[in-house]
Design brief:
Blueprint lengths: L2 H4 L5 H16 L13 H13 L6 H7 L5 H7 L5 H9 L3 H27 L3 H26 L4 H9 L1
Length: about 160
């Protein structure tokens, strides 16, 4: 069996539509293979930045406590991202395996940040808030990097997709 025999032949119009869609996604900084945009990670990077400021400026804990989790669609709906409707559509039509892997990681990030926020609201000492911030930052940063890998097509689901298409 030749490599070309393993691939179904697509009509020219489907290929042209796929190429045009991929170009449109690339121009909007959305990965055409995954349908995801790294812009969403800015939402989590903001929380991490605030956490990292708390040890030097304990008053930043209040800023962190004002941070609220947003879903992918909520983030883009509230953003000034030029192609926000395209980003939401691409997410909604992304391969379910890629999207599930991504959603699992971002749900973990959101859960950690929410739990740390709740603990910080209970804390009465700046030292406690500082320790919480340092621990949370250490937990969340690798997960944000993992989410970035999924967006950029470095996830296991993307490998499966490539192998099957």
């Amino acid at each position: 069996m030749t490599p070309s025999a393993a691939q179904p032949i697509q009509p020219a119009s489907v290929t042209a539509d796929s190429s045009a869609r991929a170009a449109q996604l690339r121009a909007a900084n959305i990965n055409p293979r995954t349908g995801l945009a790294t812009d969403y990670l800015n939402h989590f990077n903001e929380a991490v930045m605030l956490l990292e400021m708390i040890p030097d400026m304990p008053e930043c804990a209040e800023d962190f406590l004002g941070w609220e989790p947003l879903s992918y669609a909520e983030h883009f709906t509230a953003s000034n991202f030029k192609a926000r409707d395209l980003a939401i559509d691409a997410y909604n039509t992304a391969d379910i395996r890629v999207r599930t892997e991504f959603d699992n990681v971002t749900s973990a990030i959101t859960s950690i940040l929410a739990a740390v926020g709740a603990a910080m609201r209970e804390a009465t000492q700046d030292d406690t808030r500082t320790r919480l911030a340092e621990q949370a930052s250490g937990w969340v940063k690798p997960l944000v990097m993992q989410a970035g890998g999924i967006i950029n097509g470095d996830g296991a689901a993307d490998v499966d997709y490539i192998m099957n298409h």
